[in-house]
Fold this sequence. Notes:
Blueprint: E1 4-11, E2 15-22, E3 25-30, E4 40-49, E5 52-57, H1 76-86, H2 92-108, E6 111-119, H3 126-137, E7 143-149, H4 160-169, E8 173-174, H5 184-201, E9 205-209, H6 219-229, E10 236-240, H7 249-261, E11 265-268, H8 270-276, H9 292-297, E12 301-304, H10 321-331, H11 337-345, H12 349-354, E13 370-373, H13 378-384, E14 388-393, E15 396-400, E16 407-410, E17 413-416
Parallel strand pairs: 1-4, 5-6, 6-7, 7-8, 9-10, 10-11, 11-12
Antiparallel strand pairs: 1-2, 2-3, 4-13, 13-14, 14-15, 16-17
Zinc ion binds at residues 56, 58, 117, 208, 307.
Amino acid sequence: MSDLLIKNALLRGKKKNDILIQKGMIVDIQQKIDNIDIPIIDADNHFVCPPFVDSHFHLDATLSYGIPRVNQSGTLLEGIKLWGELKPHLTIDALKKRALNLCHWAIARGTLAIRTHVDISDPTLLAVEAMLDIKKEVKDWIDLQLVAFPQDGLLRANSVENLVRALDMGVDIVGGIPHFERTMTDGTESITTLCEIASARSLMIDMHCDESDDPMSRHIETLCKETIRLGLKGQVAGSHLTSMHSMDNYYVSKLLPLMNEAEISVIANPLINITLQGRHDTYPKRRGMTRVPEQISAGLNVSFGHDCVMDPWYPLGSHDMLDVAHMALHVAQMTGQRQMEQCFDAITYNPAKTLQLQKYGVQKGCKGDLVVLQCRDPIEAIRLRPVRLYVIKRGKIISSTKPVSYDLNLSGKNFETDLIFRNQ
Ligand SMILES: [Zn+2]
């Protein structure tokens, strides 16, 4: 809980303002606020926004790339098999070390809230114990939400008891993976069981749902139905929903209003969807990301998650949410000005709503959590993925990076430019 005065901040719409944070909260935003005797930084006409929010991640698997081997086929199913091979070798210390490392990467890139799925398939619940420890360890910097995730299938791996134990230990949210159960019927049964568990405990739900190219994978329909039946509207997220990419248009025209009625939050994971989906296609190859522009037009709250960084499913990544928005914009062909802004919202305001973060934003009364980027607006942020000059948590600077500049030197003549290049 610190005090900080930020001078010359460019807010959305290119409005220049000073921002006053006292006791960790934004108390004033005006064109000019007189200096007072508290720490002051000059944003120097750079864009200031609330911190990025990653609505879908796997902290227990992260940074394990190559252990014990790499994914040869690049498919989701080989990734799950490979994670199964890695699990017997996991230790609490190794899990915590990798997760903490990732959290440091996230902070440096301005992400201060992460919803992470934690595998509960192993009866030792080692990963749950490790992630609960990490949640406590990083609480002053990152809001971590944990989802109890039956990676090997709730019914397929007989994981109901493990899931309930994980919730008893303090895991926040109920997860699921209906498309990975043995049959469509089992998938349906798993959704009903999980929604009833969440309803009895008044918990939010976030399921991996229809992460498949199969147009007949329609578990989202059941998830909507159970959400409405149990009065869980607004509490439920559908992650991935990649089968919607391949569905028949008529069916989607019936499905979108149903998702709207159930107030389902959509979480697409563009880096991973474009990598894992379409692997059984020859040409043309499907992109596999869910129908983001249509979902936004239908009034759904759509977010983008990072999902993986250097794990059995994805060999790359640095946990930069601007990489995620950049990929989404391309995959969904959201190149209109308003659409590019929507891509920025999908890594900030929209996931904040899905995670039910309180007092999030750049307004009086919001928490003093902000990022100063070396650019001028959300579109430039996605284009350049620029330096995070300051990352601020409750008025305290918790990370800073020097600005970069670039001087062209052609034929001995200096061209000073105001071009901003991405800091590597
Ligand atoms: Zn996932």
